[in-house]
Amino acid sequence: MITEPSAEQLVDKADSLYTIIILAAKRARHLNEGGPEILENYRSHKLVSKSLEEIEKDKITYVKRYKNEN
User: Fold this and answer.
1) Is 54 in contact with 41 (CB distance < 8 Å)?
2) pLDDT digit of tens for each residue in the chain (70 aa)?
3) How far apart are the C-alpha atoms of 2 and 45, rounded to whole Å?
């Protein structure tokens, strides 16, 4: 099973590989629950691969939140 693009190839889209994996997992869960597809055409039919493709095309992004330090 080869996922294209791989999470490792997308590491420049976020601050870490861990962030890419979490983004893809959350988006795949959203798609599984009936969330709309963002791209017109996908190379894969698998939800995680679709999520990675959306990250690759800059359709899925994130904002890093920091806790207030008091």
Assistant:
1) no
2) 556 788 888 888 888 999 999 999 999 999 999 999 999 999 999 999 999 999 999 999 888 887 776 5
3) 13
Q: Are 48 and 29 in contact (CB under 8 A)?
A: no
For tokens 């920091």, name the residue: 66
Question: Tokens 């963002």 sit at which residue?
Answer: 38
Residues listed for the chain: 70
| Domain spans, the chain | 7-56
Q: Report the amino acid identity of residue 42.
A: Y
Best CA proximity match to 24, nearest among 44, 41, 40: 44
pTM score above 0.85: no
